[in-house]
Design brief:
Number of helices of chain A: 8
Distance between the termini of chain A: 50 Å
Radius of gyration of chain A: 17 Å
Helix content of chain A: 25-40%
Strand content of chain A: 15-25%
Oligomer: homodimer
Structural class of chain A: alpha/beta
Chain lengths: 217, 217
């Protein structure tokens, strides 16, 4: 059996489990996002600000994915939100099976929104459906404006782009308009937000949009 | 045959090809570094500054690895250095076979130093030997100080850490001493440099060290 065949079988099995997860989330009316980005783009910081903004407005649970450590789950737990950590032990992405295991360990009673924070990796998580409603990709201005062109699959498979660290634009080599233009060239239907976790810019707009998706109009 | 067995066979084959590459580099007296980091940490910018500093001092060639586009190879070619681009078409890391193919396409005549810039990914390239003398990992201060703990394999397998974008420390949530402490906790033998491609800080020190490794005392 060739490597390609094995990979196809792995992805096929993943898609089956993802579909089971999707049905579970639908039955329980839980809106699920898969938060993806490079390491250090600010996924956890955005999540902290979002949880703070949405406190009392919607019931949220979090699944944290990391190659190693539970540092991110500790940060989220401090906000009083149900959270479970998946440590992949070297694995470069979450998969539907890992998420299914995590579901069994987290209190999803009454949850309306589940945020799955993926491993920091702009390549591999693009190919793995977890059963989410949508992928939300975070791109930091500090990474430069060419990343959508260089890592197109992630931007193609995402529904939302959050451009983070916009407060740093004056100090870094990144043209914000070019970054958005490059992303929309790869995926014209991307919904784009601009945020800063230092100034809180854009957090309200993004959080309100997410709230609308989670609990409807 | 299980997925694990297939993966072992893939890595075993990779190690064989890496060993061939290593012998080739040794026979031709070429010092080779494998430059790794997250997307947007500044690998290409550091390389541009290094090439500029080392101009006339050592003969350099470059292999650029990217998931998509030849934007980085274009940047390097402008500096008059022999360069070849590997586009992985979705692949999350370079491997020894891709490098072997690239060697056949690049002018290595008289080359003393070969820089292989890997795909931006802090996870997968850690496991793939390309035949290099050493891995050099770049960590940007904008990614925060916890990355060595969260992505330990890359820091464990590297010989050198370049902490880049130190000019941005005043504006970001990163304790430089903690970042270095975390990296040295994972790998106490890491040689650490601090650089900024905006102010050119640290470029001379790093380049001189690399020059020493490439052409000897």
């Amino acid at each position: 059996m060739s490597v390609v065949t094995i990979e196809k079988k792995v992805l096929q099995k993943n898609d089956e489990l993802a579909q089971q997860n999707r049905l579970f989330f639908a039955r329980n009316s839980i809106f699920v996002i898969n938060l993806v980005s490079s390491p250090g783009s600010g996924k956890t910081s955005i999540l902290e600000r979002t949880l703070d903004y949405l406190k009392g407005k919607v019931k949220i649970a979090v699944i944290e994915g990391d190659v190693q450590t539970d540092l991110d789950a500790q940060r989220i737990a401090r906000l009083g939100v149900p959270v479970v950590q998946i440590v992949t032990n070297g694995g470069c992405h979450l998969d539907a099976n890992l998420v299914q295991n995590a579901i069994a360990k987290i209190n999803l009673k009454n949850a309306e929104l589940l945020v799955i924070e993926n491993v920091g990796n702009l390549v591999c998580p693009a190919g793995y459906d977890l059963g989410e409603a949508m992928k939300v990709v975070v791109a930091s201005t500090t990474e430069g404006d060419d990343k959508p062109l260089k890592y197109p699959a992630m931007f193609r498979n995402a529904s939302v782009l959050i451009v983070n660290k916009i407060d740093l634009v004056p100090y870094v080599d990144c043209n914000l308009e070019q970054l958005k233009k490059n992303a929309l060239q790869i995926n014209p239907s991307l919904k784009v937000f601009e945020t800063s976790c230092t100034t809180n810019a854009g957090i309200a707009e993004w959080s309100e949009w997410l709230l609308g998706k989670s609990v409807g109009p």
